[in-house]
User: What shape does this take?
Amino acid sequence: MTSFKSLPFRARGKAAAAILGGAMALTACVSPVAGPSGNYATPIGNAPVTSNPTPYSEGLVCMGQYARNANIRAPRIAVGRILDYTGKADVEGGRRVTQGASLMAMSAFAKAGARLVERFDTSVTEMELNFKNNKLIEDGNGSYAKITAGEVAGSDFYLVGGITELNYNIRSVGGEAFIGDQDVYDPKGTIGAKMFVINVAIDLRMVETKTLNVVDVISYQKQIIGREVSLGVFDFANGNVFDIGVGGRAQEPIQLAVRSTIERAVLEMMSNMYGAPSTDVCNDLGVLASTNGTTGDFLPAYDNVADYNGQVREQPYRSGEQKLGALRGRY
Assistant: This one.
């Protein structure tokens, strides 16, 4: 067998160029010059945008529909800061768990049909009030907009709390085996597998705004499992060396686990506020057209909930059925 080093210098150059050209071809034609579309390369992947449900999202949706069917007044709820108190940081920088738990809670309350009032980020409203106070905003009638008492809706309750636990390696198990005989030229193989469990936990409380009485406290945890499998083969054949390895690794998403614990907590809190006899009220509702769904909730701009509703927003390929331009025209 002729080795690479035994080739003449020019032949080695040609071989290296051929290898480099083949490698560039495998990168799906990346060009240093922008094409007619204005891009150097076309991104891979064509997965559609989908909803992001947890096992508790459907329960939240039907809880909201139950309250509307029973004419139960949904409370006005504000969400405060739900911070990361785990103290765990990645070795490369950044936190290990999401810093957006408050946003997850807002989405959960929206799925349950609660009336949300903004208290988390009021920077734009405060700027608008400042402009109004200085008579800088016009009202559309040739005059300036005025500040009116009682414009801002108050909250009945607000939610605060934190992500309080992130525990690594609650339990792990693994094994690895090497298979082969004593002949160095016979094939050898390795196989290995690992499993591990971690968990996250939250502590949330619902506070009545007027009295500051804590009316509901919930603490939940969720375990997360991960697994890793590997397989390798090593062999000499016809003067060549073959070393092949394959494997796979999978883990439940940590941030989705945080979302699941928050949605479970919100489901129980809203069940209490709605006075639902049990979470099984969903079985009696059937299929209803409603503004709330697993993606959240909205205030309809027009009276067309039968055609445009929360269930329509859950469809992954809706853009192929109705052009996005038609959606933009709604507002």
